[in-house]
Amino acid sequence: MGKKTWIALGGAAVVLLPLLSLGWTFVKRPLAVPAASVAPLPSPPAVDVGLSVLPTARIATQHGFSVRGAPLTAPLTSAMVAFVVSHPEGRLLIDAGMGRNGVAHVDTTPRLMQLIVELEVSRGTADALADHGVGPEDLHGVLLTHSHWDHVSGLEDLPGVPVWATAEEMAYIEDDEGALLYRQIDAAEPVDLRELRFAGGAYGPFPRSADIFGDGTVVAVPMPGHTPGSVGVFVNLPSGRRYLFIGDTAWAREGVDWPAEKPWLSRRMVDLDAEGVRAQLVLLHQLQVQHPELLVVPAHDERVHQGIARFPDMER
Fold first, then answer.
1. Is the pTM of this model over 0.70?
2. Of 83, 99, 272, 278, whose CA is between 20 and 30 Å from 158?
3. Domain total of the chain
C-alpha cells in the first residue's frame, strides 16, 4: 500500500476507534454479584401508613441511555415525581417533584443535557397537592434522596416546608454545579434545610439509618455514589408491602434487576462516584433477591411507578 493509503487508514482509525470505544459502553455487561447473602431487613411495623406517587412531568428518552445494555432504539419515559407518604404525624414527600417553572429550570443543567432534554410539565407538585386540598402547611416535610434539579424543582413552590438532606449532601449543595438550581431557589427564598442524621444503627445491610417517625415506617439509609449524600428511603406499609426509593442510583429497574450501571456517557454527566454507584447496585440486587416482597423504586422509571397508587389514592 502507498503512503496515502496508510495515511487514510490512520485517519479512519483515529475516527473509528473512539466511536467503537464509546459504542462498547452501551453493550450489556452485568455487574458481578457475590454469592454471599446480605443482612436481612427487620420485620416491618404495623402502623397505618399510606404511600402514593405524584406525577409532575415527563421526559421522552431512549432506554439504552438509562442502563447499559438496554436497546438504544427503544423509547422510555423518564418521569419526574414526588412520592407521598401519609403518616399519622403528617404527610411526607420523598423528593419534591417538578415545580411550575420546571421548563425554565432545565437551563440550570449541563449544556449537553439542555440540548437533549424536552421536559413536559403536567402539573407542578404544589398545584397537584392543592388540587386535593393539601397545602405547604399540611406537609411534615420533604426528604431529598439528593439535590439535583429534577428532585428539588418543586421546592420553589413549597416555601417554609422543612427539607432534610445529609451533611454530605449539604456540603455538595454549597458549590457543586449539580446543585445550581437548589442554590437559586434558596437565594430567592431561603429553604428550611435541616440535617438528616443517621443516628440509628444498621438497617439490614446498610451500616447506619435514620428512622424518620421513630416507628420503623420510614427509614432513610446512606446510598452515596450518584452524589456524596444520596440516600435510599424504605417505606413499610401495614399490609407487609415494602418499598425502597433509590433516587438516581439507577434510572431504570434493569439497573437493579441485572444489575447494570448507566452507560458511560450518561454516568459521566450525572454520577459523581461511578464505583460507589456500582457497589450500591450490587447490594440492591442482592437485597431484592433476598426480599421478594421489596419493590426497589428508581426515581424516574415510570414503569415501576405504575405499580404504586396515584395520589390522592394510597397504597396501605
1. yes
2. 272
3. 1
